Protein: Chaperone protein HtpG
Organism: Campylobacter blaseri
Amino acid sequence: MSKYEFQTEVSDLLNLMIHSLYSNKEIFLRELVSNSSDALDKLNYLTLTEDSYKKLEYTPRIDIKFNKDDKTLTISDTGIGMDKDDLVNNLGTIAKSGTKNFLSQLSGDVKKDSNLIGQFGVGFYSAFMVADKVEVLTKKALSENAYLWSSDAKSYTIVDSKKDSHGTSITLYLKDDEFLNEYRLENIIKKYSNHIPYPIFMDKSEYIPAQKEGEEGKTEVKNTQVNRASALWRMQKNALKDEDYNDFYKQISYDDNDPLLYIHTKAEGKIEYTSLFYIPSKEPFDLYRVDYQSGVKLYVKRVFITDDEKELLPTYLRFVKGVLDVEDLPLNVSREILQDNIIMRSVKEASVKKILSELEKLKNNDREKYIKFYILFGNVLKEGLYGFGENKEDILNLVMFKSSKRDGLITLKEYKEAMKDDQKEIYYITGKNYNSLKDSPILENFKKKDIEVLICDSEIDSIVMPMVYEFDKTPIKPASQAKFDDKEKIDESKYTELVAKIKEAIKDEVKDVKVTNRLNDSPACIVYDENDPDFSTQQILKQMGQTDLPEIKPILEINPDHEIIKKLENDKLMLNDVSKILLDIAKVQAGMNIENPNEFAKILNSIIAKAL
Ligand code: ADP
Ligand code: MG
């Protein structure tokens, strides 16, 4: 007999399972059944692809049995099984970097946390929420040797053992009677495991009514299949209810909430495939993490291939969960094939088109629901506008914006419909804060002319909006680059001397100083050269790690009609100080930092003192 200590992380995790997460204990069964289902998937795949496994006798099934006297519950499968190394590696250590992440994600909300158990690949250990002792009897397919792994959560032992056929049988020595009840067990199986593709059998008592008058009815125990075990996505749409779709979603997503939308497609043209996609009604915890998990499982002819392939959908659709089942691929598809294969490529393209077009429908038919979707995932969707991505047109139809004139969110189409007759362009302004953007000096002229501006206050806007040049043949431009030709031209030559002096005073901080007709109430504002990234874009580029960005200075534009500028022409003494203050104020209004706040305070104080 060999005795082993658990890896430290496993011990920590076990403590956590036993002492904190136990209030949603029933999920242990979901986890053990899902491991059995995985083990059946693995063997299923091998028997279909590897010659040495083809002769193996293999009837995929899971059996659940309990014994009230011993207080034991046993979950058995006819799957791949484990050898000694597998036992040590899989049930004594945590190979994936998963646990650390798992521990850092715990929120204290027990329901949420117990869903994380499944997502982080630490499901097996949840057995210790309900059992003081766990035994794993297992024999690997094609191997002669069986082993018994046994643990009390403190350490574990492995001994040689006997088992008739390949597969794994896990026996839990339960802490109490709660799960020694067929109705309870059946309910849990139906709730979490109804649609795993393999049958789950259980001894169920069935009442047989009396056959003849005078006789009594009796109860018979029968080994009965308790789950549906259907590849739900292969069933006919009209045989399925919303409830079936929702249950299946919960099973594959570890999300307790109903999805916002499901999209079930059966393609029967040149390329045959079935897809069932879901859009969650809640933000997945890893939506904005680089190591987010793919939500789409790939099957080939109903055989599970992978749930770890992020390229199945573009990253801007990473919130989508579901199943993709392709007919005309070999079962032993490699990662390379997945990425380059022409069939796979058209399945992906068609899937993306389908999802986008269903979102378009939702937008047109159920605005309220669409807004709900958009608030959750709109910023992720907007990532699809990056660069020269495909489907930009479709995405442009779906994205929404805040507006300088209206409450809520509007689409580009709605913006266009409300455009003035003589307005030729769509305008937007980017930055961090909705209120300060709305009141930005840049928009003064727009307000006066009653022209709507899209207020782009999310980070992704600052990155993608400069990459969007037009919508439906109408150019899209930053508000700072709008040129209004109707207003009487300013005679710039009148201000050459003043401009030169202001420029001299702040020459280290600006690229240029210009007179402008874009302002009404403010004396000055900051803009960027047409080809320079604006301030918010620069900041995000830096955040994304572009540290070699050269310093890009703004342009200070002054309003010649403003009282301050007019007086400045005749006040040579104050010109230096006032120029600096004008620049600093314009910077603050643009959401930037002041270079030297102490100098700013000093100058402003002295100006106040003079004014009083
Ligand atoms: P995950 O299922 O995410 O890998 P678990 O903690 O649930 O994490 O299981 C750990 C590992 O133990 C599995 O990956 C698998 O290799 C092995 N394992 C668990 N249960 C079984 C089983 N019934 N048959 C074969 N292997 C199993
Ligand atoms: Mg598992």
The pocket of magnesium ion (ligand 2) is lined by residues 31, 34-35, 123 (CB under 6 Å). Residues 490-612 form a domain with the Four Helix Bundle (Hemerythrin (Met), subunit A) fold (CATH 1.20.120.790).
